[in-house]
Write a structure and sequence with these properties.
This protein is an all-beta fold and 114 residues long. It is built from no helices and 11 strands. The protein has a single domain, classed as Beta Barrel (Lipocalin), CATH 2.40.128.
Length: 114
């Protein structure tokens, strides 16, 4: 769970991410491609989730839960360690070590194929 502004962001073992207001009302619910055992990384207007048994991290918009980016790691994520930010880099653990991504600016956010 992560407090994000006036909301609580929850990653669940049922493969869903939830955003709740502080009174417990669900604002949105989004199915992800695997179990989420790590705390999501919330930054400004989006959150990064690292589903287990997936080779892609998922970025959801906090306002509506829609996917705004996908970060392919090239290998399956098997750790329950949360992604972290150091400077302008985001680190995600995989079965063979760390994968680093630079934090994109708004102009570089890639939309998933639909």
């Amino acid at each position: 769970m992560v407090l994000s502004g006036e909301s609580l962001l929850v990653a669940s073992l049922d493969n869903f991410a939830y955003l709740l207001n502080l009174k417990g009302k669900m604002l949105w619910k989004r199915l992800l491609p695997g179990r989420i055992s790590a705390q999501p990384l919330a930054l400004q207007e989006a959150a990064l989730f690292t589903p287990l048994s997936s080779s892609t991290a998922v970025v959801l918009a906090l306002k509506d839960g829609k996917q705004v980016n996908a970060l392919p790691t090239g290998e399956e994520m098997t750790s329950s360690a949360a992604p972290i930010v150091v400077g302008d880099a985001v680190f995600v653990t995989t079965e063979h070590g760390l994968v680093a991504f630079s934090r994109p600016g708004d102009a570089n956010v890639r939309k998933p194929n639909q």
